[in-house]
Amino acid sequence: LAQKVDSTFKKPTRMAVSFCVTDEIFAVSVSRNKTISKYYMLGIISVSYVGWIAGTAFGAVLGGVLPAVISDALGIAIYGMFLAIILPAARDDSRYLKVIIIAVILSCMFKWFPVLNKVSSGFVIIICAVIASAAGALLYPIDDAEEMEENK
Question: What pTM was estimated for this model as a whole?
Fold first, then answer.
């Protein structure tokens, strides 16, 4: 994402935006074929956070009222939303698919390998995300010429 932002992103702006970036905001931003301005990021962050807060409020109010079947279905829906974010990018660019496969393999290792399966699920998500994204950055660095071509 840092490679896609325009020159108006100074250090304070980068720090503020980095605090607000979620996986959905990241996925939508990096899939954009243009340079990203701070106003674009402000808009996408604002809309996302309003939706997040409203969804949390509705969940808190309706969570105890909804039947268990609907509650369970909504718990699964988050995985479908995540797949809807990553699959288009993976279909369009095999580099994304390879990084996703790395994350899946790591996740399976933490599920089935002795000792690794003792790590809590929250840490597993963080570890897999960091290792897979680092692998993607090392295997597929974006050089300045490629970045300039993408931003045209």
Answer: 0.59
**Contact residues for 24 (Cβ-Cβ < 8 A; gap 6+):** 48, 81, 85
Q: How far apart are CA 139 and CA 61, in angstroms?
A: 46
Positive or negative, the CA dihedral 130, 114, 105, 122 is: negative
Rounded CA-CA distance 75/40 in Å is 30
Backbone phi, psi, residue 84, to 5°: -65, -25
Structure tokens belonging to residue 9: 């992103």
Reported as a single tens digit per residue, the pLDDT across 109-123 is: 999 999 999 999 889
Cα dist. 136→9, 36, 72, 98 in Å? 24, 21, 34, 8
Which tokens belong to 101? 């496969």
Give φ, ψ of 140 to 5 degrees: -130, 60
CA dist 110 and 119 (Å) reads 7
Q: How far apart are CA 103 and CA 37, in angstroms?
A: 29
